[in-house]
Request: fold
Amino acid sequence: MSDAESDLYQQVVVDHKRAPRNFGTLAAPTHQARGHNPQCGDDLQVALRVEDGRVRDIRFTGQGCAICMASTSMMTEAVRGGEVEAARQLQERFRAVLTGQLEPDSAQLGKLISLAGVRRYPSRIKCAMLGWHALMHALNDPNGAAAAAEEATP
Amino acid sequence: MADLQTPSRVDVQELRASFPVLAQRVNAGALAYLDNAATTQVPVPVLDAMREFDERDRANIHRGVHTLSQRATDAFERARSTLKRFVGAGPGHELVFTSGTTEALNLVAHGLSTAGVAPAAIGSGDEIIVSGLEHHANLVPWQQAARRCGATLRILLPDRQGRIHVEDLARLLTPRTRVFATTACANATGERPPFEALLALAAGAGALTVLDAAQVVSHNAPDLASLACDFMAFSGHKMYGPMGTGALVGRCAALERLEPLRYGGDMVTWVTWADATFDELPARLEGGTPNVAGAVGMAAAVAFIDQVGRGAIDAQVRALRARAAAGLADIEGVTVLSATATDTAIVSFVDATVHPHDIGTLLDEQGIAVRTGHHCAQPLLDHLGLGPTTRASFAVYNTDDEVDRLVAGVARAVRVLR
Reply:
């Protein structure tokens, strides 16, 4: 039997929900996109400054459930300062863990492993993926124009 | 709370035995099913009635000369009569079976905005007024209808507390108002608008009137005979009946103005290669083979409601709502929507910092089923300055203990996540 309180809402998750890291706007971003789930009202804006293939800085604003906010907060910590390609690969591994295609222990997720429990709550996977969708959208479409009403799908 | 504990309501424990689905554990607790505004559960007599039909009388209805076809036709028409009686329909009313409230409302919006043999009832420059409390099913079809025929859609907005005022409708009505549509109870907030007065005012101004009764039929079915209502829609699955069933009931003269949504078998009288003439009501609006077992199930649900007693059911769900609203409002940071509403089975609430999805997941962990999100009423929640909400909704089989578990569960979720 699962226990959402210890499995889904681990202390580190609740901590990131209460005090999201890299929360705010970024002056002169090179890439940005919005992630929006109209069904539950979660709505995020992710902005990055990419130079020489690296994520020099990243910020996000918006609102969402604890899973969505914690996942996006940890995402910004994980990709900030790293290579864009590494961010893409981390997104793929994180997504594969949530959709059950990859075991958490072999995914090298770092702190994000605290969200692996989401895989047992299919209705919440889209919450954990929303910020990542926005990140990928921003990297693929720097102006974010086409991403204005993106829906989150796992 | 002492007055809520009196045993005068319904013998809930005995009644729960008729709902096998309730007797199960979900995750770490006994199931507390508090999502009845989405769909109610089905009692054994309703399941039995549908099974008996399929085991003994199943055949296609109308035009059959064999015995089973006649029995099936009789069962279908008996169900129609039962449902008409249930909502106070008189000789000037007719009832059409649909797949649910959504189809019934689409039938009206499409039927009034589409030209057939006669021109569409709504024309270019006409106006449609829809209350701001509506489920998307009573808003989106009217957006499309207005677009189709060049009409203007106006919204009767609620105040900041989510209440609708008759004076505001008076200001919106014009000689070009062709339709006024409202809910009898807002599914997202539990607000109960003064629909009797609203419908009377709109009808007096010459508009056709539409009532979405989906959220009230299970405990407080409107009485058509005393309402200025041309069309009323409701669902079987929100009144202890089967899913995929519903009805549109209304004044014959109004129903006759609807261009059918579905053309085909059972709704025509004479067909040539080039053309067809349509049957009378209700067949005219019931093209194709209907859900006969579903209609039988809906009629059995009426029998269930009448046996328990409409007054008793209404008293039960109101008391549960009042208990829940009071308990939830006592949690610091929690705001109950339509807090003063009394004649509703729905309690919707928000917390200052904790998201409904997180509350919903933690409640589910204890077997408590609630709905979270926009409840198909996104513009209303935007208007009220709210995002998604958590909604608990009650049926006759719910108990004070389940309400107390809900309140305790919400308090705990808020404590864990705030």
Observations:
- Chain B has two domains: 2-42+309-417, 47-306.
- Residues 67-86 of chain B form the longest helix (20 residues).
- Confidence is low (pLDDT under 50) at residues 1-7 of chain B.
- The two ends of chain B are 29 Å apart (CA to CA).
